[in-house]
């Protein structure tokens, strides 16, 4: 998601897909009968990608239950991140206090700025059963509305309220939250109960303070949050910290930091410089001002078409116009034959694990790749596929905000962690958890949709 002077936001989502597309052409002109594996699809993949063009380790040992994580002290927080089909990462938050407190599973979205949830302002018949619904009757009415219109047709409107907001044991007493009164479009049927925008900006589109602005002024131990996003093939869930680094994940590594950059002279949120790429042994120079948005609310990686050509050439890949320009490559190519692909943060290379490169096996001899076109977007989008390979650090200090990474180490498993003794402002220990880091093949899922959001 992006922020330009017109407040342009990008919000990506994976959708399951069921389709029967007759024929596609390979670069050699051969017609291929394109019938996706019906067990893998529940929505039209072509439509999903068409929408996409409009928008811009740590794991619990027990995979069958959520992490039971406790904050180290009152000015830090830690919470589990639930992986929904490698497409979205949900975090539990609580709105309200005492008997009025309600919990919601929110999309963690570093590419957006708004905080909103489904609410009792909507007719009950219009809210799908999977959503928790907020009753804002005890919250303070801010006496103004919000409206979010998605280019694909999704529209969210409602009323802004002020209420207590708790994340991982850390409470803010004055968070502006949008109570949705109307939600129209496919977004209704997606899993999150709402959106937790953690974009690097002081205001929501309603003009109310963002979550980041409130975090800055709430006495946190340190002005950072971190994300460890896991794959569906890995046991357990990832986690989110607020106010500290998890030193057990960092280990002996030194985090690499790079400053946030402007895009076309404007704030684009968590945008960083990314001026090269590496495919196999070939380093590819990109424009000196090329930037990438670090977006937990986006599933895939979006880059320019020149780089896509370089990435897919050794994979015998091609752009499929009948699937709205999605890039595919033959499923017959073995994982050990995939090229090494690196996309840097500043001067720090992040190399994807081979299993992350193939996103969806279509069951007809082709797979959808993790790299797709950014279209007319003026910067790259590094989404969850990229973030699966790092421990991500978001430093939102008001003077020189920056983004940091630590590589997730392969082949580290069953590392028991005692979390009681840390006193460093940027580290913490938490009791009662067992974590391990693993880099395994990303489970193949579905084609994706990306929705362009203007506010």
If you had to describe this structure to a student in words, what would you say it looks like?
The protein is 7% helix and 39% strand. The chain is mainly beta and 455 residues long. The model is unreliable at 1-55, 57-70 and 410-455 (pLDDT under 50). The protein has a domain at 59-250 and 390-437: Acid Proteases (Cathepsin D, subunit A, domain 1, Beta Barrel). The strands form seven sheets. The chain has a six-stranded mixed barrel with strand order 6-7-12-8-11-10. It is globular, with a radius of gyration of 21 Å. The protein has helices spanning 45-52, 211-216, 247-250, 305-312, 384-387; strands spanning 8-14, 23-25, 31-33, 59-60, 77-84, 88-95, 102-109, 115-118, 140-150, 155-167, 170-184, 194-197, 224-228, 238-242, 256-259, 262-263, 266-267, 271-273, 276-279, 282-285, 291-294, 301-303, 318-320, 326-330, 341-342, 358-361, 366-369, 371-373, 380-382, 390-395, 402-407, 412-417, 433-437, 448-454. A hairpin with a 4-residue loop joins strand 26 and strand 27. It has five helices and 34 strands.
